[in-house]
């Protein structure tokens, strides 16, 4: 790793484009909405944007089903809009990284349409996983794999002769057929995609399902009872060792663009296996999801940090931290909701921003948004809802559009009242406009914390040392001498030695109250 790499101590801000800001009044966020609000990101001192997929897509999984990886969907503003975004972001010193989705395409991709038309045994089918079914008439799927969103991972097609025929594999929705990365055409096309965006000035990529592109020979059955939206390390659907060859190929391409970064979505829990993706010739960064998996518990927090640092230590990689994204429950809700959930979310944010390495902030986190748990069933759009037979409501609750201004929905997100997901009336108290003027607000808190993180020398450096603390608190000294203390217990505790420079809530008689974190130097 190069010590000077911009991404080694950066703040990435994830924009879920449908939900950020709508510029054309269709109720769905778009790229020009983001361009119009870059001042918000500048005031947050973020270094880079991670933009969730905006390529041409039927939107079965809101853009994670890509029909043309080298064009922008008209819903998001087309190519002119991304060109405006690249230059407007760069003018403000903000980098732009894009999501790429190499594990699968949309079923509307010309390759998949050609595969359907060409029939069994053709080269066109070799770009995907087409297999004959089991049973005397092929009436059973080729194996027992389930889709991450629920139901079988196999869908049977109607062949050109009009009869039911082969099955194709889709680890996600039916409309997201998995690509066969053993076919060299697949890599060649992905290389074209990477170069296409890098040549237009994009600063790097978040690589979707980076542990999914290789499948074990023979596609052996998985164990029974795999839960929707989760998988363990022994799951044959993911993390087959030959995936590392794919990453080495990607790295060779990206290395032609010296400042470009790759960030892999690697849902692998075992440290040694996870770390393999961060070898010097593979990904630059890997998401570490441990902080999204734990409660507000001092022991769990210490363990997650220790474990993450141990994992990146294996191949001398850069640590990354994230509390939420568009796939997981928002932290305010995870930590208990309401006032207590928000206090804890702010405390955890302060802790995360004290840790050495790179952080990812999910849009709305800076406003203290909770999940919207009471979305009416008829508005749910995550494929998980349908595919789980209406047993899992899915991820819409953490994707509700951002409230910008005003006293009623759509809160300046759009000029249309018909936003793609309804916005709760009580978010009137959480708008950017309302929080901007309030020094105690969560937005002001994030702005101040991120400004300190950017400006103060105590935030340089890569070390972390645990300091003595009560068992239900977390206290460490990190980087250039910054001390961070978080109280996850039920009574106030004395602050460690040093001068307090910031806290996630008021200190009480010079002590650190429950559910509050502080920085000292
Ligand atoms: O997610 C991949 C993935 O494995 C997740 O679905 C994960 O298992 C789950 O969310 C854990 O809680 C990526 C994208 O982030 C997601 O939005 C897409 O739906 C998915 O890939 C398919 O492209």
Automatic annotation (TrEMBL):
One Pfam family this chain carries?
Alpha-amylase
- Keyword tags: Glycoprotein, Glycosidase, Hydrolase, Isomerase
One Gene Ontology molecular-function label: isomerase activity
Q: Which InterPro entries match?
A: GH, GH13_cat_dom, O16G_dom_2
Give an example GO biological process. Answer: oligosaccharide catabolic process
CDD domains this protein is in? AmyAc_OligoGlu_TS (cd11332)
Q: Which residues belong to any copy of the Glycosyl hydrolase family 13 catalytic domain?
A: 14-399
**Family the entry assigns:** Belongs to the glycosyl hydrolase 13 family.
User: What is this protein called in UniProt?
Assistant: Glycosidase
Q: Which species expresses this protein natively?
A: Mycobacterium numidiamassiliense
């Amino acid at each position: 790793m190069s010590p000077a790499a911009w991404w080694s101590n950066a703040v990435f801000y994830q924009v879920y484009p449908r939900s950020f800001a709508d510029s054309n009044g269709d109720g769905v966020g778009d790229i020009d909405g983001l361009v119009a609000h870059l001042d918000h990101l500048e005031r947050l001192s973020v270094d880079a944007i991670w933009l969730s997929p905006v390529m041409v897509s039927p939107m079965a999984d809101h853009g994670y089903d890509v029909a043309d990886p080298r064009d922008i969907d008209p819903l998001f503003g087309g190519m002119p809009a991304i060109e405006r975004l690249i230059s407007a972001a760069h003018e403000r010193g903000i980098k732009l990284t894009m999501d790429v989705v190499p594990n699968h395409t949309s079923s509307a991709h010309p390759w998949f349409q050609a595969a359907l038309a060409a029939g069994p045994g053709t080269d066109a089918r070799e770009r995907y996983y087409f297999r004959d079914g089991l049973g005397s008439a092929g009436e059973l799927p080729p194996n027992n794999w389930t889709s991450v969103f629920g139901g079988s991972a196999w869908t049977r097609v109607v062949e050109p002769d009009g009869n039911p025929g082969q099955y194709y594999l889709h680890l996600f929705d039916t409309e997201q057929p998995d690509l066969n990365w053993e076919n060299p055409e697949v890599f060649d096309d992905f290389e074209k995609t990477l170069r296409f965006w890098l040549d237009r000035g994009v600063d790097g990529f978040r690589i979707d399902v980076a542990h999914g592109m290789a499948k074990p020979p023979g596609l052996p059955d998985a164990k029974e009872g795999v839960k929707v939206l989760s998988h363990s390390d022994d799951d044959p659907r993911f993390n087959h060792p030959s995936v590392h060859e794919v990453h080495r190929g990607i790295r060779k391409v990206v290395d032609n663009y010296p400042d470009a970064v790759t960030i892999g979505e690697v849902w692998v829990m075992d440290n040694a296996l996870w770390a393999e993706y961060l070898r010097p010739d593979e990904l630059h960064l890997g998401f570490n999801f441990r902080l999204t998996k734990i409660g507000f518990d001092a022991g769990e927090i210490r363990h997650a940090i220790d474990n993450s640092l141990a994992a990146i230590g294996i191949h001398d990689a850069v640590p990354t931290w994230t509390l939420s994204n568009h796939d997981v429950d928002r932290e305010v809700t995870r930590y208990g909701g309401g006032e207590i959930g928000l206090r804890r979310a702010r405390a955890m944010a302060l802790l995360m921003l004290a840790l050495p390495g790179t952080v990812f902030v999910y849009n709305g986190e800076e406003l203290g948004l909770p999940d919207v748990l009471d979305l009416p069933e008829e508005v749910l759009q995550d494929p998980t809802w349908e595919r789980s037979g209406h047993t899992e409501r899915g991820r819409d609750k953490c994707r509700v559009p951002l409230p910008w201004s005003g006293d009623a929905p759509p809160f300046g997100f759009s000029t249309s009242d018909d936003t793609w997901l309804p916005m709760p009336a009580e978010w009137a108290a959480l708008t950017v406009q309302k929080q901007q003027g309030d020094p105690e607000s969560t937005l002001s808190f994030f702005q101040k914390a991120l400004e300190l993180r950017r400006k103060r020398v105590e935030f340089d450096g890569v070390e972390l040392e645990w300091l003595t603390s009560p068992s239900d608190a977390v206290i460490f000294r990190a980087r250039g001498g910054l001390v961070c203390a978080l109280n996850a217990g039920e009574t106030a505790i004395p602050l460690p030695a040093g001068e307090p420079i910031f806290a996630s809530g008021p200190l009480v008689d010079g002590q650190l109250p429950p559910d509050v974190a502080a920085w000292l130097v």
